[in-house]
Amino acid sequence: MRAPYLYRxxxxxxxxKRIKGMITLVLLTLxxxxxxxxxxxxxxxxxxxxxxxxxxxxxxxxxxxxxxPGNYITIQEANRHVRLDKNKFFALKLANGTxxxxxxxxxxxxxxxxxxxxxxxxxxxxxxxxxPDNLYCYYFSAAGGxxxxxxxxxxxxxxxxxxxLADQLDATFKNDESLMAYDAFHHMYKLEWLxx
Length: 196
Hints:
Layout: H1 2-34, E1 38-44, H2 47-52, E2 61-63, E3 72-77, E4 80-85, E5 91-94, E6 99-102, E7 107-110, E8 117-123, E9 136-142, E10 148-149, H3 152-158, H4 165-172, E11 182-183, E12 188-189, H5 190-194
Antiparallel strand pairs: 1-2, 1-5, 2-3, 3-4, 5-6, 6-7, 7-8, 8-9, 9-10, 11-12
């Protein structure tokens, strides 16, 4: 009578060992991913540094702590490690040429370098079944201001001193999605061209 119970116990014990092994493997993989570092082209402490392309740290590696987002990044330059709070610098430029502005929980790719209007995008996480899979939300900041959603209303509120901008926006753009239209002739976004 005891033999079937003993058999089940041994089977359950084997299953538990396999589960523990898989959990350990997953945790090791996550730990390696958390420690992954990226090559930097520069860290810009202020918006002016970014616009003038004067990085404070260059040719270093950065740990973004992306697995468990924190309020800081760690920069390794030569033999020293520097820990920077995310609110103490303006942007990062990675070795692949893309520039990013970080907040406590999100990262925004910077799309231009206009001193009056900076444009950003943030990828929307979607299911692999969704097409197209490269969906973005767009944002802007006006001359050192906060990031805001890129809408015609927010642009009008940010540039109230420009009396004709509201009418130009309404005449040029049909909806908020068209605000990201690129002017290939002038090599800038149409929104930037209106603000010149």
